[in-house]
Amino acid sequence: MVVELVLPDLRYADSWIEAVREFGGTTMHGSGLWDLTADHASVETLAARVPVLLEQSDHATALPEGRVHSDYWWMVEDEEFVGYLAIRHQLTDLLLQEGGHIGYAVRPSRRGRGHATRALTLALGRARELGLERVLLTCEEGNTASARTIERNGGVWEDSRRGRRRYWIDLASDE
Ligand SMILES: CC(C)(COP(=O)(O)OP(=O)(O)OC[C@H]1O[C@@H](n2cnc3c(N)ncnc32)[C@H](O)[C@@H]1OP(=O)(O)O)[C@@H](O)C(=O)NCCC(=O)NCCS
Fold first, then answer.
1. Between the chain's N and C termini, which has fewer beta carbons within 10 Å?
2. Phi and psi for 128 in degrees, rounded to 5?
3. pLDDT value at position 1?
4. Ligand 1, closest atom to CA 28?
5. What's CA 33's distance to the chain center, in Å?
6. DSSP-derived secondary structure letter, 7
7. Cα distance between residue 85 and residue 77, in whole Å
8. pLDDT string in tens for the chain (175-residue length)
9. Are 149 and 120 in contact (CB under 8 A)?
10. Ligand 1 center–CA 105 separation, angstroms
11. Which controlled-vocabulary keywords does the entry list (predicted)?
12. Residues near ligand 1 (Cβ within 6 A)
């Protein structure tokens, strides 16, 4: 089976808990769970967080200053959680400079299997459905795996700012 994008769901709790422990406190890009520590990986925590993640995509949801509506997706392979991916519906100035539209992370033990590359391909289809005509992706200088993931998906390097490589992917011309 190849990786799919699914909405966050408690049915993946067991592998999600293992994954959070694997991340071991490192940033879980694209998770929307920046404040979550490995110690708090539990079914109860996930049950509380899933609805909050899901409502972030709803433009009726009021968000704190500086946050934008976002779709949170989970990468799943064979019913197992393998990674996170977020699609931000718009850019703030900070996202334009640094963060971009799409963020992702694959759990450490599942890296190097093509999951991020495939998940980003799927995410571009979702971004197109949201009406985005082009998306910005960024990665730290030296993050070869992320740079390759973006380049494999047609990312065109624009420049580097504050130590991050910035790429655009045109969605309008690639139906
Ligand atoms: C970046 C990341 C998501 C890549 O996930 P992945 O599923 O391992 O990526 P893929 O297997 O699809 O590989 C993508 C490309 O990177 C290459 N790659 C994978 N791991 C690599 C590594 N450690 N060093 C160099 N290249 C690597 C692969 O060979 C592939 O390139 P290719 O198509 O030219 O062969 C993953 O390393 C990760 O979660 N890192 C931490 C979080 C992060 O950096 N997120 C991105 C924020 S900008």
1. C
2. -65, -40
3. 81
4. 42
5. 11
6. -
7. 14
8. 899 999 999 999 999 999 999 999 999 999 999 889 888 899 999 999 999 999 999 999 999 999 999 999 999 999 999 999 999 999 999 999 999 999 999 999 999 999 999 999 999 999 999 999 999 999 999 999 999 999 999 999 999 999 999 999 999 975 5
9. yes
10. 9
11. Transferase
12. 29, 103-106, 111-117, 139, 143-146, 148-149, 152
CA of 76 to the centre of ligand 1 (A): 17
Residue 133, number of CB atoms within 10 A of its CB = 10
Query: Residue 121's CB: how many other CB atoms inside 10 A?
Result: 15
For the CA of 137, the nearest atom of ligand 1: 48
Ligand 1 center to 103 CA (angstroms): 13
Cα 81 to Cα 6: distance, rounded to the nearest angstrom: 10
Q: How far apart are CA 120 and CA 113, in angstroms?
A: 13
Cα 106 to averaged position of ligand 1 atoms, centre (Å) = 8
Return the pLDDT at 40. 87
Domains and CATH numbers, the chain: 4-170 (3.40.630.30)
Closest ligand 1 atom to Cα of 149: 14
pTM: 0.97
Atom in ligand 1 nearest the alpha carbon of residue 152: 33
